[in-house]
Amino acid sequence: MAITCKAQQQPALKALSIGDTVPDFSFHNLINYKGKLSLGMLSDKLVIIDFWTTGCPSCIEAIPELEQLQKEFPGKLQIIMVNPWEKKDAIEKRVNAMKILRPGIGLTTLPNAYGDTIWREIFPHSGTPHHIWIYKNKVIASTSSINATKEHIAKILAGEKVILSKKTDLLLDGFDIKKNSLIKKAHPSLKPMYYSAFFKGNYGFGRGVNTEIDSTDGLIIRRFYNQPVLDLYKSAFGVRPFEKNRIRIEVADSLSLQWPRDNNDVDSWFENNSFCYEIALPLDAKNLLLKYMQSDLNRFFSATKNIEGIMESKQFPCWILKKGKGKLKQQSVLENKIIEVDSSTVMLKGWSLAAIYGLLRSNIEGNSNDIKIVDETGIDPKTILTISLPRDKKNFNKLKDGLEATGIAIEKGNRKVEILAIRPLEQ
Asked: Are 276 and 223 in contact (CB under 8 A)?
């Protein structure tokens, strides 16, 4: 059920901070809630406002956890998702596409306010997910999503004192990390040619990666913000996020290399295990960027953590894509459309072979410890196809039928596949 409320008199807008009393602001453009909803109506509950966007994968992946927390504290907790940047149609289109490609992901059942920009003025912030905690009409926390745990909620409702990590936001102090380098020239006349550097993680800005083309100095600059060691290595060696089973961690202290599973441990973990990194190369040497980054990581982490990352070739059971016997069903226009044929089949209309291959790897390798997908078709990866595939892409026979109808065969076999190994340095 969707409810769109007409404009009504709201309290004067003022950015709120921890300790401030919260006026009775109403939620507009609300779905998954019957009737009107305002903060004043929730004064007897702990309220967590979850700011999110469809461009934030971690926001969407966290939805089931938030829904479970809501079920754990009926009548005492109200989690409200707020997306003030996007309209309802855009949200539904993007999340439904994700749902088709990644089973288990979908729109939330929690109350969700969309496209209402006043919330950006009341609780200004940069980066998502961003959480505002309100209890007894007062703001008690402005924090990241790591604090949304059953233990923290239970203690607050029991009247116990809980220290929630504060999300320091340098953007609110006028510093936008996306518009500034981690490294600055000492004088405008200095012309950098190549550099790289590591920094400790900084809670003042979010996680992420950006690339800048500096036409003045003729450089390509890539920056990584608040990344764990494993994610830096994955970026340097071209291992995509879903390729978890193409990584082997051989070090004893593997927990220090990746984000903690328990959000209660993040603050203590962050200090020594989160890093920022910047590298700049001449534009005509941009193809060497990842190679240089690999060397940087191994030099730095060999000195600080006594580890190195390398690519190794190992034998695995594979599903192997081959050129089929029939004619390849090509088309000329790249559309990247996803069409639901029925409850068990989805059509990928106007997709490149590279994108189809990536989807298969994401769905199959992302849910298997053993099976790898290998492309031996010999077909140009830019070739555009339309193909119908089963939702359950782990069903080999149904997958085979869908591929063969497009002119691609698939068979089982063993192949050597390169994997990223993080291992201790040999003494």
From this structure: yes
